Amino acid sequence: MVDNKQQWKAWLYLSPAIVLLLVFTVWPIFNTLRMAFLNGYGSLGEMGGATFEFGIDNFLNVIEYKNFLQCLKNTVILCVATVPISTILALLIAVALNSIKPLQKTLQTIFFLPYVTNSIAIGMVFAAMFNIVGLKGNGVAETWGIVNNVIQFFGGEPINWINAGSPYWANMTVMIIYIVWNALPFKILVLLGGLQSINKQYYDAAKVDGTPRRRVFTKITVPLLSPMIAYVVITGFIGGFKEYSSIVGIFGDKMGPANDAGRLNTMVGFVYDAMAKDRQGRASAAALILFAIILVVTLINNQVSKKRVHY
């Protein structure tokens, strides 16, 4: 406890952080709430002296917007598809890494490298891998791309993944592969740290009893690792609902193939588009709707965690 006579020193030391928190966190949140409930709000209009009535028109405009459901659909699909897959793969890889002693640190570094790499740069690499160069009207291409070359090597037919005329399912497959791959490093790091903190006596006892490895994994590893699993699942859903930069990295600012711009737009992309058109009121309303969705999903995850997580 700080002596009452010395508390002013504590507040003095904390004042720079408090000021930054108020300016860059508290005020933007308050301002977002304000703009969301000002009908048709735009910063240019406000600077021009326009007045805006208090109401919920911005929320109605967001819901009634023709591309809103598509943005919401894309966001939900990416979340539901990528979070379980990335969590399961990260758990399996973490268990494998934990059982490997030689070169363990080197392998951990290799797996963690994508986490510290710019997502736009990684997206451009994935775009090059799935890209088709010189696709003609008759379906003939100068270069089918790395991924299609692998598919053809094993006797399959090349697929138009991301170029003009590509199907929606192919676009989403590319995005799911990229997001899963990009999400693995952080989850592996968290789960591996949790594995290394588990008391070895549990495994020694299971070994003495001759317990099969599958049962050790399901009855010891997973229950004792459940707090970390719950954490990566919750943060995975939060990150998934904010997905945007990965799509820009692969498809550019058109958020879709050349012939269908906006096909893969997400809720965050919807917010950015509204802001670019000086519709800050609509963008703020969309941001609050996204916040409400994330809050509901997080609360559901917390309720499930209370029954499934063992501390």
Task: Identify the notable features of this structure and list them briefly.
single chain; 311 residues; mainly alpha; MetI-like fold; globular
What this model shows, in words?
The protein has 311 residues and is an all-alpha fold. It has a domain at 67-276: MetI-like (MetI-like fold), CATH 1.10.3720. 70% of the residues lie in helices and 0% in strands. The chain is built from 13 helices and no strands. α8 crosses α10 (213-241), α10 packs antiparallel against α13 (280-308) and α12 (267-276) packs antiparallel against α13 (280-308). The longest helix has 32 residues, at 68-99.
Question: CATH superfamily of the domain at 67-276, called what?
Answer: MetI-like
Number of helices: 13
CATH domain fold name of the domain at 67-276: MetI-like fold
Mean pLDDT: 85
Please give the largest β-sheet: none
Distance between the termini: 30 Å
Got a strand count?
0
Shape summary:
globular
What percent of residues are in strands? Answer: under 5%
CATH architecture of the domain at 67-276: Orthogonal Bundle
Which runs of at least 5 residues are low in confidence (pLDDT < 50)?
Answer: none
Radius of gyration: 24 Å
Q: Indicate the percent of residues in helices.
A: over 70%
Strand-pairing-aware structural class: mainly alpha
Q: What sequence of helices (H) and strands (E) makes up the elements?
A: HHHHHHHHHHHHH
CATH domain class name of the domain at 67-276:
Mainly Alpha
